[in-house]
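Internal ticket - ligand job 213, S-adenosyl-L-homocysteine:
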Amino acid sequence: MKDTSKHQGLRNQLVTVLQQKGITNKSVLEAISKIPRHLFLNSSFEDYAYQDKAFPIGAGQTISQPYTVAFQTELLEVKKGDKVLEIGTGSGYQTAVLCMVGAVVYSVERQNELFKKTSLLLPKLGIRAKHLSFGDGYKGLPNYAPFDSIIVTAGAPEIPKALMSQLKIGGKLVIPVGEDIQVMTLVIRKGETQFEKHEFGDFRFVPLLEDKN
Ligand code: SAH
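stdout (structure tokens):
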């Protein structure tokens, strides 16, 4: 599959849709206008890739809806060079958005099939994540901690303690919390043991699953 002017036109329309839904962060919108989302999907989805929808990516998982990707990334307020941990690499689309807004990205995926596929795809598209790994993101990546921010792209029944402990002071964790429906939650680490929590409405994610490896 190639990236053509037709795809660029569809991306521009998607950016307009996201703006209408309330996304304002310029670097997030620019990333979405540049990243060829159709190349993160099986070719049978090419015609739909720029709809604001989630689609299957194999292993029972989905690529997040662009609005969700934009909303979560906006909440992170990434500054260039921020060290960001992503839990749930999946297709790599959110990883690409994080790289493009200037983050140094560490990402963890627990489905080996997706880990392998995405590890090959990202470099082909010129997207250089700092570290992609296969494992259980519930545990975070203690060897690489602390992080400026952490983004979880699957629905967590509760906020994993390990992730809170791997935030820098002042760092942000964006995580959808809940069983069937998730509340988008922003946790800011205010001090060694102080955390502030903000909630941002309902979303629907595939579940964050523990320990399969
Ligand atoms: N950011 C991805 C979202 C994929 S869906 C994208 O836009 O394509 C969520 C992903 O989280 C799935 O790939 C799923 O396999 C992964 N996941 C679920 N539980 C996990 C865990 N404990 N650790 C790491 N990844 C996990």
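Auto-summary: Residues 57, 61-64, 87-88, 90-91, 93-94, 108-111, 114, 136-138, 153-154, 206, 208-210 surround S-adenosyl-L-homocysteine (CB under 6 Å). The mean pLDDT is 96.
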